[in-house]
Protein: HIT family protein
Amino acid sequence: MSGEVDGTPAAEDPALVAGVPDGFERLWTPHRWAYIAGQDKPADDSAGACPFCRAPTLADDEGLVVARGAHAYVVLNLYPYNPGHLLVCPYRHVADYTDLTEAEVAEVASLTRAAMHVLRRVSHPHGFNLGMNQGPVAGAGVAAHLHQHVVPRWGGDSNFLPIVARTKAVPVLLDDTRRLLADAWDHGGDDAGEDAGDDAGDDGAAGT
Structure:
């Protein structure tokens, strides 16, 4: 228990209490509190409150939009798991994959493939995580508007930071990432003939 020195509370010496110091410094990431506190998450399910409905109404650089199709678009994740983490979203405010039209399904799929081609050319990832979280119980941060995750992965990108310090290091500014990917997209990023295995042996590192 804490003692007192001249009537003033004093912190106890940790060496005198049970337990062993863990040997890790603390990496403080106060910017993550914005996400934890719900910044940019809609308070209700209405389209007017939805960040994925709002993003395509803005200029590309302001909304972090990388590419636009007829029925869906590609946007950077504001809270990326890895550099270049993209989201493929239908313009229409719809929550469930089964509610998409055939045209929306086709374009979400084609934009997902194009995103992989662009990311392979720009940053040479070793693999990808693709997926949709359907509903809050499945981990969807904005459950009311469907979005497909395209997360580039590199060998060793799951280091001690997220495991021990609950921290993810993302060394590239979002504006720079958006510009880099948008420029690459404009130069043929949706080329379906690109060999998906071209970069399989590349030693590119996360953040390049």
Observations:
- Residues 44-186 form a domain with the HIT family, subunit A fold (CATH 3.30.428.10).
